[in-house]
Amino acid sequence: GPCTECSCSSGREPEKDPSHTKKKENGERLCVPKIFFGTRTHKQITQISRELKRTAYSCVPMTILSSRDYTCIHPVVSNSSNRNEMCVEMLEGKHGRSCSYYHGVHKLCEHHALQPAAKVYQAWDIEDLVGLGRKLRACPYFAARELMMGADIVFCPYNYLLDPQIRDSMDINLKDQVVILDEAHNIEDCARESVSFGVTEGQLRAAREELDVMVNHSIRQEHHEPLRAVCCSLI
């Protein structure tokens, strides 16, 4: 007869079963945590993945999260001064262009060099990923994010773990996971940086001029006047 546990027979949505969910003997779900390994710089990730390659854990599924500065291979976007914005515009199909590299992400994710089941698989670094991406004409930036789903260990710079905005944009959820921070004495500086912001005098003057226009045209004066006062005092 039909399986009574089948979600379709009960009319319920099938539960999401990511690769990190194992079943205990009594049928409960046991979640295997990921290890998030944070380093100060991208260069240190390369050193650590090299060390991982030399251990017995070289074939553990892994990924490296890094910025488009390191992993974008689109000939136009990678040479632009604002890669993030241009990448998003391309993915949204603005100006009628789209990114063929993005559409090839699955080719890179499924390549045997990045699939732990394959005999040739071993720990890799950003250069390996980018080199393979160029060969397959597939985007290393989004492939690395995609590989996070099945990874046991995720390498990334500190700020990906500490900065809530980056965590959100990268879909990083640290609940019940293991977090390792390499050279943790640098954390204070990194935490300060993630809530700091630098502006030039030119930007302040431009902001003040825009706020002048708002106030003079009676647009939400109660909000814009205090902002203008802040700009003036900083200038």
Q: In words, what does this structure look like?
A:
The N and C termini lie far apart (78 Å). This protein has helices spanning 7-10, 42-53, 68-71, 83-91, 105-109, 126-136, 140-147, 158-162, 164-169, 187-194, 201-216, 221-234, and strands spanning 21-23, 29-31, 35-39, 62-64, 153-157, 178-181. It folds into two domains: 35-195, Rossmann fold; 201-234, no CATH class. It has 235 residues and is of the alpha/beta class. Keywords: ATP-binding, Hydrolase, Nucleotide-binding. One of its GO terms (biological process) is double-strand break repair involved in meiotic recombination.
Outline the low-pLDDT stretches.
1-18
* Helix percentage: 40-55%
Distance linking N and C termini: 78 Å
Strand adjacency order, main sheet: 4-5-3-6
Structural class comes to alpha/beta
SS element count, helices: 12
H and E string: HEEEHEHHHHHEHHEHHH
Overall shape: globular
Please state roughly what percent of the residues sit in beta strands, choosing from under 5%, 5-15%, 15-25%, 25-35%, 35-45% or over 45%.
5-15%
Give the tally of β-strands: 6
Report the mean per-residue pLDDT as an integer.
86
- The appropriate CATH architecture of the largest domain is 3-Layer(aba) Sandwich
Instruction: Report the CATH topology name of the largest domain.
Output: Rossmann fold
Q: Could you provide a short overview of the structure?
A:
With 235 residues, this protein is an alpha/beta fold. The chain is built from twelve helices and six strands.
